[in-house]
Amino acid sequence: MGPHPIWLVLTEGGNTYLELDAGRDAWGRGAPALLGDATSVTAVRRDVDAARAPEAHRALIGQRVTLFDLAGKPCPGEVTGLELLERILPDDALDRSWAGVDTIVRPEDPTLARSAKKVWARESRGCTLAARVTARCEAPLWAQPAGLPAPAVASFEPAQGALARAAEGALHALPVFAQVGAFYAKRRRKADPARLEDVPNYGEGFEVATTPDGQAMVHAGMGVCLGNGHFTVNLEAFWRVSGPPESPTLMLLGTPAPRESLWVQSAVDLDGDGQLDVLTLDGFLLARDGALSPPTQQRARLAGTCPEAGPSEEELARVR
User: Fold this and answer.
1) How many CB atoms lie within 10 A of CB 102?
2) pLDDT range class, residue 102, cuts 50, 70, 90
3) Residue 247: which domain range?
């Protein structure tokens, strides 16, 4: 069975949307408007002339969908229209000094329409085509067509015994693990430990998620933060698990590389293709051709975390 549609859910200014595709300003009609709560602008929206939008997306209007939260709790909804959406960080108005734009949303302000036009003119090249959904859900994360079975969500729990040992060995055997260690050795200060693993705040973690039908996925991570300008790295990897509990076999998914923390939560077959995908706190990674897709997230992270990405793949490739 092939995968069925799945959409990331976006919530802006009290409105609920499904993220569909990259948008085009030519599909829009009418004036843009700012979206936000009582304190800040978080997005700009514009109505879509459905006749100009792609037929596949136009066909969603009037369709019923099921939205799910992080735990997999379902909530009904209905697509009522299409909009172009450009999400912005709450403090972008201050950073970019948009004339007439305040981070405070004041509907009675006569400059609001002019502000929305100025913001849209600057931002619309990166807009998203989104489906507006009528729903009353708490913290929805993803959605699928109504009538499909709800997928079983399996939380990641600490790995134990033989599986934990296998995951630790698999993490340490990754070529990128050795590259990160070599990169640290070149960057470390004289007072720092010779090995990255001996740095006091170095950490590793190994988790497993097992679905009711017996599918299992291991998530492993390592990280250390020695401060900006010194050394910081976050490395995460995923494996499919097979074989008996006393002698598990791990199959690596994709090619791990240092990156910002994924905030991993659960494993679940989101799109019904028989492969486990990954739910994160603010999005998901889909299993495709023996790998996991880059994360699809609800919005840019508003706060930096440590450890962050660390050295780039290009920097690691230059380590000898």
Assistant:
1) 16
2) very low
3) 154-317
Confidence bin at 101 (pLDDT 50/70/90): very low
Contacts of residue 136, defined as CB under 8 A and 6 or more positions apart, other chains included, come to 75
Structure tokens at 168: 């630790």
Predicted pLDDT of residue 176:
95
What whole-number distance in Å separates Cα of residue 262 and Cα of residue 207?
Answer: 14
Structural domain count of the chain:
2
d(CA 64, CA 11): 18
Res 305: pLDDT: 64
Distance of CA 254 to the CA centre of its chain: 17
Q: Please give the Cα distance from 70 to 140 (Å, whole number).
A: 7
Q: Does residue 294 share a domain with residue 163?
A: yes
User: Are 283 and 170 in a shared domain?
Assistant: yes
Q: In whole angstroms, give the CA distance from residue 66 to residue 9.
A: 11
Task: Pinpoint the alpha helices (H) of 133-200.
Answer: 161-173, 175-187
Q: Is 2 within a domain?
A: no
For residue 48, give the nearest of 83, 20, 24 by alpha carbon.
Answer: 83
- pLDDT at residue 119 tops 80: no
Asked if 37 and 88 sit in the same domain, the reply is yes
Question: Hey, which bits of the chain come out as E strands?
Answer: 7-12, 15-22, 33-36, 41-47, 64-68, 74-87, 128-135, 142-145, 154-155, 157-158, 203-210, 216-225, 232-242, 249-252, 264-268, 277-280, 283-285, 287-288, 291-292, 296-297
* Structure token pair of residue 221: 């991570």
What would the mean pLDDT of 73-101 be, rounded to a whole number? 72
